[in-house]
Write a structure and sequence with these properties.
The chain has nine helices and 14 strands. It is α/β, with parallel strands linked by helices. The protein has one domain: Metallo-beta-lactamase, Chain A, CATH 3.60.15. Strand 9 and strand 10 form a beta hairpin.
Length: about 325
Amino acid sequence: MAFGTPNRRTLLKLAAALPAFAMGAGPMRAAVLGAPQGGNAGYFRFGLGEMKLTVLSDGYFALPTSGLGVNAPREAVADFLAQHYLDLEQGYSHTNHLFIDTGAARILVDVGSGSRWFGTAGRLLANMQAAGIDPASITHVVITHAHPDHIWGIRDDFDEAIFPDAEYIMGAAEHAYWMQDGLANRVAPEAQQFVVGAVNSINCDGVDWVLAEEGHEIVSGVRMIATPGHTPGHMSLHVESGGQQLIALGDCMTHAHLNFAHPEWFNGTDSDGDQTVATRRRLLDRAAADRIAVLGYHFPFPGVGHVRAEAGAYRFLPALWQFD
């Protein structure tokens, strides 16, 4: 079942109207800052115990803020955005992919959108090259969920796997959801491209899936954790080495300010709002109590930081960027 490249109007309509299938609306650019001249670096390296980690950007995209905090009063959401110097109309979503080098394994989390999503995304391979990472060296590819900006880049223009020699891993529940017989015929017409795109990506030539359950160990120190809500089978990654820990959140949290200050608010892009909130609170409690670093896929690049609990809510504390 083939599909074409959707236009921007179609994508925006999908994002605004389809909570079960649209993308997270992510954090936005502070209005006081303008775009750079000549671009910025698209990768960021840091260490976690004995592991070498790199955040690789696939670019960015913008969506209306009307999808944020859909269970909260509109004026409350607008006031929050204004207080945080954020645009009231358009969100600005970064796309932060985690690359893990354990020495014995090289793991990439999500594959971006390739050329099938917004024109401002699809930069993963270019930034991988800039960071000196050979695509042929990837041993494992982990998919957190099957939304466009996380899986549509799995195949090239010939419909073959971008990383043909890697082991591909996805949550069993996520795989089962998208691969239901006749799902595309049971959703709204505007959502059909999301379903067909997910199915085509999952059925990519050269990919044999390992279907993971809670706690699945990819390699020593890297395991998957169930974080449902944004999609029915969404999974995140827990990484541990040398007494240090990090959780790659995927899209179980999409906004570095709002999701922390108001964990009870969910987005129109979350398939199950109540479950999204329960998952978020569980992770925030754990990260704050155990001092576990987190990486947000849609947080401002590079998206790495810690969680601080305060007054019944939380705050995201960006990690200190170090040059040496």
